[in-house]
Amino acid sequence: MNTWLLLLPFLLPFAGVPLTLALRKRRKIQSVLALGLMLAALGFTFGLLRAVLTTAQPVSIQMGLWQAPFGITLTADPLGVFMTLMSQIVLSAGLIYSLGSTEKVVQYPTYHPLFLALAAGLTGAFLTGDLFNLFVFAEIIVISGAVLTAIADDAYGVEAAYKYFYISTLASVFFLLGIGSLYIGHGTLNLADLAARIASAPSAPLTMAGMALLTAAFLIKSAAFPFHFWQPDFHAAAPTPVSAMLSSLVVKVGVYAFFRMTTLLFPHVQLLKTLLVVVGVAGVIYGGFGAAGTHNVKRMLAYSTLAQIGFILVGIGWGTPLALAAALVFTFNHALVKAAMLMLAGAMASRAAVKSASFEVVVGVGKHHPFAGALFLLGGMALAGIPPLNGFISKLMIFWSGVEAAQYIPLLIIGVASIVTLTYVIRSFIRIWFEPNPKAKEKAGDRLLAPALLVFLSLLLGVWAEPLVALSQWTAAWLGDPAFYIAAILR
Q: What secondary structure does DSSP assign to 249-282, as a single string?
């Protein structure tokens, strides 16, 4: 049974690609089938989480019956299940939003197959136990995300897709060179076996070169400072449900990789952790002020992601059990809130006289839609870390972990810089919902069910944070001793 629990969260969206493509002429059935498959995958992921919690052991499969470390390993350990659960909740919300979207792109015959390919890539990336297959799934994410952006209604979609594709190609080159370096030095790409060999021979040829190349690749993929330059254009031009996935989930592949690098592959390399703290602090500062100075709601939220990723990298860099748990809580909560905020930005853009997320266009549009305003305000409070939203729990844990680790200087910097979040959230809220605009008229647009569900979940996880915090602490404890992961896979 556990074998199926591990395979189905990946196989269902993957199988949905050809199935929905075959239904390309029956759009209603295609969209409902895509959502049904995604919800079913989410249900099996909850079952997989229960299995891992019950046994306190990862669920793993050796494809082709090859014994590890040979062949392809799929592994659901606490971190992999945590990230998969997060991604599939948000992906399901993205498909719900697509059902009520007025964008032309959601009616394209290839939209839902590509969306499910993106979902399969994300799920596979989090559940693979092999470094090369992580590269393969990351490429599936890049291709599907680039094509979804290229076919967007936005006139700049093709340009943004080209930028993303070429920057991602650079990251892929670093990734492949890093993989090759580690294979030359240690003769394996299975994560568990590679971790054991690096621990026994940390000075093997090209080990540090491989680490440096992987670090560069994942900094680009996580859109961390200073490799963030592709993100605002790409996320602003993508279709609303897709931009919500890109800004909340796709950048988390890099974050996931840094969890693996700092706790499994290179836990002994303090330089890597220090680099993540420096990059994270810089991202919090640059992302906050970049969001405050932009002219477009979606671009503002894209820069905000840069700042939020910065908080997560700081927690990973500090590396204490509390800091890792805080980074996990922040990762999960940010995915919910950022997806909801981008959906709300897209919903307001769909109600403007000219469909655009530019502040000049959406100013005053919200006065006819108070419910959307309430959702946006709650989501903005979560981003800023105001109680009782889940963002407050995220930042509280990050700050407390900084105090515990005696990291007072970076803590002071990110604490002051985080105040900027409240500034740009309030400014955008006032401009969209309270500034007068005689051209703004009541108009139908994208439905608000999906962002409402995500905001409600964000409020629930702020008021009742214990389950997520407990799961994060358990996952952090698992990450703290890589011997458990290695023994479970190579047994």
A: IITHHHHHHHHHIIIII-TT-HHHHHHHHHHHHH
* 3-class state of residue 67 by DSSP: coil
Q: Is 467 helix (H, G, I), strand (E, B) or coil?
A: helix
Length of the chain: 491
The pLDDT value given to residue 440: 66
Are 363 and 432 within 8 A, CB to CB? Answer: yes
Pick from 478, 326, 299: nearest CA to 390: 326
- Specify the DSSP class assigned to residue 296: B
Q: DSSP assignment, residue 137? A: H
The one-letter code for the residue type at 125 is A
Which residue(s) pair with 128 in the sheet? 74
Q: Are 425 and 337 in contact (CB under 8 A)?
A: no
What whole-number distance in Å separates Cα of residue 334 and Cα of residue 329? 8
Task: Give the phi and the psi of residue 350 in degrees, each rounded to 5.
Answer: -70, -15
Residues 6+ positions from 200 with CB-CB distance below 8 Å: none
Distance CA 2, CA 81 (A): 13
Largest Cα span, the chain: 70
When pLDDT is cut at 50, 70 and 90, the band that residue 429 belongs to is: very high
Instruction: State whether residue 227 is helix, strand or coil.
Output: coil
Count of domains observed in the chain: 1
Q: Which domain holds residue 81?
A: 2-490
Q: Exposed, middle or buried, 234 (CB in 10 Å: 0-12/13-18/19+)? A: buried
pLDDT tens digits for range 34-81? 999 999 999 999 999 999 998 888 888 887 777 778 778 899 999 999
CA dihedral 306, 265, 469, 47 (to 10 degrees): 110
What are φ and ψ of residue 446, in 5° steps?
-60, 145
